[in-house]
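Researcher: Please translate sequence to structure tokens.
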Amino acid sequence: MSFLAVDVGNTRLKWALYASPQPGAGLMAHGAVFLEQIDNLADTEWKDLDPPASMLGSIVAGEGVKRRVEEQMEIWDIAPRWVVSSPHAAGVTNGYDHPNRLGTDRWVALIGARHRVLAMGAPRPALVVMVGTAVTVDALDGTGRFLGGLILPGFGLMLRALEMGTAGLKAPTGDVRDFPTNTSDALMSGGAHSIAGAIERMHRRLLARTGQDPVLLMSGGAAVKLAPITDLPFETVDTLIFEGLLALQSHRLAM
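Model: Translation complete:
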């Protein structure tokens, strides 16, 4: 009863093969490729995998990319299934004005966050931050209702925007500093402090809204850049979307 979880973002496809479709299942294999390399999955990373019994994926990269992923899955006898954001799922209520327009990566991460918080003990609000091509900062109250969230440009988009809009300014990689004294550090620190400030403001507003100190969960490869400058306690969870996919699949099978 192995289960394949797939997360297709704007830049990379990440996958994980679990022993069963339920939260806490053992991880058997995992990997990641850039979208340009998707067409080789059947001959490389997926070639020697034991065939999964089922699959569920989250995708934000568009229909063309989805078709390419499904073509690679033809080596197995499974029907590809993809998450569609909905008003309610797996104990989470979607408070978006138009629930189906919420990005599936955000929706699935919220579900993963809710189940992770419940596994810690008593229900609490949560702030879910994903740091990728874009940065999202999403708020869950203690009942599992998604209250709303922010979308910001990620580090790369911020730096490229400054390069394009400022004459003669280049953006080599710098370090995050409290008081930067060179342009490279100033650029990197500006991006990091912008994101950290948005997180801290949303954290304060969620605390004021719910009266409970929110759990802060951060995911994404660039989340490590925020660690030195974030005063709030947080947990980095790289598998948050996979955990949401496991919860959704388990909930579906239990219905």
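Researcher: Any highlights?
Model: Residues 8 and 204 are 31 Å apart (CA to CA).
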